[in-house]
Write a structure and sequence with these properties.
alpha/beta, eleven-stranded mixed beta sheet, 16 helices
Length: about 500
């Protein structure tokens, strides 16, 4: 597991769904502006078509944007046209986060939340390069993933566990290179942002209207930096801190998830300090003695931690955490925590894993230049345990294991988001956001620049505020539909 910055709605992801197949091709010309061959979407394996209102297509883009005349790859798109065609504004492109989330998969299931916007916008989702239908990265078989989930301790306590943890990270990267080596060097966020401009042109839009959630905010900030003159109406919700490097992101998430855990405990009438210590003790017990489950699988510490993380993304899921902890502490079994962990890890009841975690890792490691060593991660442990006794140790170790001996160099320490001359961009931060803490939204608004970043604060819980806060939803709708920009510093409570 890696703690993801992802939209709440991205939690609806199930198995790997490939509605449109993206393949590497030769030097085919891209589709002319505004002319795409939209066709009825194919049914995903084991599922059904998204419905008669949805159409799918692909856009060809350079595999390497530094070599525009070289090989190309296909980016998968899905669209639902505006319901009031006579009042249509244009296209509204979505990215729901991850990185690794499939917009082609998520948007049809999330579209009910965007019905008001769909009256005047075509809703458009896409699979970023390296994700699902856009030459999705693949790194391991189901059996290999299952073996790692059962045997690798993500908070190693001994030299042997530490060596196995780092070696597993290196093995994962080697698998990505072996199975997806052609696209692996090219799946970073900068390339995905350039693809977004190709999508804009292919859709025939003069400006890009865009709704980015979680990692989608980093992608949106990168686009604004590269193409400020093409920025239309853009909303960034649940914002990734653009100033943070690898360790900084881990520090932010330790702070954010501990804050969410304490808010959860307060909501349950428990003392946050005592509740945190009790949960840390539970994890230590499970580390020594994994819990049995009715499936025959065991719940180890790593899976238990994943199960605790999952419901903290949304306040509406807090009762699930209460039930899972009650079972683990009082019944000595781990069925509910394991079910939550499987949902997070993309594992179905038959032991099949989707590949969004493969894509997430490949994109993250293509972006981040830093490659902390095990010794450097170990040195972070005192600070991170202080930040969060529950989540801190894992997040400290993750800085070293995630991109261990990765076969591709990362691009930067932190992404660039300055966008002088761009139209106003609405930046929405939620004070209780666990995965992308509120402070990151403030920094994004600052980085975008004066007159560009417009800060909107949502006083609440959870990862993402549109559809959760009536105040935020109304302001975002007015911005997209009527061009009304809220006053910078507006607060919804």
């Amino acid at each position: 597991m890696r703690v993801r910055g992802r939209a709440r709605r991205a939690a609806v992801l199930t198995g790997a769904v490939l509605l449109v197949t993206g393949v590497l091709t030769g030097c085919d010309s891209p589709a002319p502006s505004g002319r795409l061959d939209w066709k009825r979407c194919e049914a995903p394996e084991g599922g059904s078509e998204p419905g008669p209102d949805w159409r799918c297509t692909t856009v060809d883009v350079p595999l390497d944007h530094a070599r525009p005349d070289g090989a190309t790859m296909s980016i998968a798109l899905i669209r639902k046209q505006a319901t009031k065609r006579s009042e249509r504004i244009g296209s509204l492109l979505f990215n729901f986060g991850g990185p690794g989330g499939s917009g082609v998969d998520i948007l049809p299931r999330a579209a009910g939340s965007y019905g008001e916007l769909n009256t005047r916008y075509d809703l458009v989702g896409f699979d970023p390069r390296g994700v699902a239908g856009s030459s999705g990265v693949r790194c391991r078989s189901d059996a290999e993933q299952e073996e790692a989930s059962l045997t690798i301790d993500m908070t190693p306590d001994t030299p042997a566990e530490e060596a196995a943890f780092i070696e597993d990270g290196a093995d994962f990267g080697a698998g990505c290179e072996r199975l997806s080596g052609t696209v692996l060097p090219h799946v970073g966020t900068t390339n995905a942002a350039r693809d977004m401009d190709a999508i804009r042109r292919a859709l025939g839009d003069r400006k890009l209207s865009y709704f980015g959630i979680s990692y989608g905010t980093e992608l949106g900030g990168t686009y604004a930096h590269l193409f400020p003159e093409h920025v239309g109406r853009v909303v960034l919700d649940a914002v990734v801190d653009p100033t943070a490097d690898t360790v900084g992101h881990a520090r932010n998430q330790a702070t954010g998830f501990q804050r969410a855990l304490e808010n959860y405990l307060k909501d349950r009438g428990q003392d946050p300090g005592a509740g945190t210590r009790r949960m840390a003790r539970l994890l230590r017990r499970i580390d020594g003695n994994p819990l049995p489950t009715s499936s025959g699988r065991q719940l180890n510490e790593s899976l238990a931690l994943t199960g605790i993380v999952t419901p903290l993304y949304s306040r509406s899921s807090w009762p699930q955490l209460t039930e899972a902890l009650d079972e683990a502490e009082n019944s000595g079994t781990g069925d509910r925590l394991l079910q939550l962990a499987d949902s997070y890890n993309g594992r179905d009841e038959n032991g099949h894993y989707d590949t969004r975690n493969h894509s997430q890792r490949a994109i993250s490691c293509a972006d981040a230049r830093a490659r902390p060593t095990a010794a450097e991660a170990r040195a972070l442990l005192p600070e991170f345990r202080e930040l969060s006794p529950v989540f801190g140790p894992f997040l400290a170790w993750d800085t070293a294991g995630w991109c261990a001996r990765w076969p591709v160099d990362g691009e930067h320490d932190a992404p660039e988001a300055s966008a002088p001359g761009a139209a106003p961009i609405l930046v929405v931060g939620t004070t209780g956001d666990p995965a992308t803490p509120y402070e990151g939204a403030q920094r994004m608004a600052d980085e975008l620049g004066e007159g560009v970043g417009v800060m909107l604060t949502n006083k609440g819980e959870g990862h993402g505020s549109y559809g959760e806060s009536g105040c935020v939803t109304s302001l975002v709708d007015a911005y997209f539909l009527d061009g009304k920009v809220p006053a910078d510093g507006r607060t919804c409570s």
